[in-house]
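Service request form, structural biology core

Requester: graduate student, group of Dr. S.
Request type: structure prediction, single chain
Budget code: on file
Notes: please return the result as structure tokens.

Sequence provided:
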Amino acid sequence: MKKKMGIGKLLLYAILITYAVITMIPFLWALSSSFKTLEEIVSGTMSFIPKKFTLDNYKQIFVEQELFPRWLLNSVVVAGTVTVLNLLFNSMAGYALARLQFPGRKPLFLIILAVLMIPAQVTMIPNYLILKQLGWLNSYQGMIVPTMVNATFIFMMRQFFINFPKELEEAAELDGLGRFGIFFRIVLPLARPALAAQAIFVFMGSWNDFMRPLIILSDPQLFTLPLGLNSFKGQYISYWNYIMAASMVFTLPVLVIYVFFNRYFIKGISFTGGK
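Core staff response, request fulfilled:
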């Protein structure tokens, strides 16, 4: 039996390592290509070590492409603000649905579940028309306000708070804390696993979003990185060396966010309560 379990574990590790290698190959090729010349990339040779190592691609996007730092700043502002607002509002809405008793709570929860079933593509035109009426096209608020709450994560936070120990809230109430004090000083700090998982998903979704900026933004000064990267592609030529270098810069913040929240991530997606 132990021998069979050992063979099974080795087979599992072999499969996981193979999958990890296959997954890493495109990333490693992109990283390598960010240090290659355009001629070497389009030559068709598949090599992970550049024949002519160069930093000109990074120099081009940071120094000679004047708008690239602005695109990076725009992405940081939009993704960071959207993440913070989602953490606050989704958590408050999830806690209210899990703990508070108020008229229309069940119908409101059913509406949120119904929203989960609507594809984002269906709401693109209505969102555009609403933003046009408000005069928010080509603006930061047009990018941030429509995405500052998310039905998926309201549902996720509700599930988390349903399993949250009520005894902690009752003890805090006996100590004199009100509802807001209980939420911000007791519940929210203990919800770090769920908040971390939510932060990763929301930040990645906003950071990688291409379609929304494409619809809302028209001024190159306000472009986010995904939309800015598209400008390196022309009708007759695509500067893949610049695209690969910019993609590496584009990937770095997401990796940092994931590494920072990694220890909470598995706990968060399992929807467990406090210890």
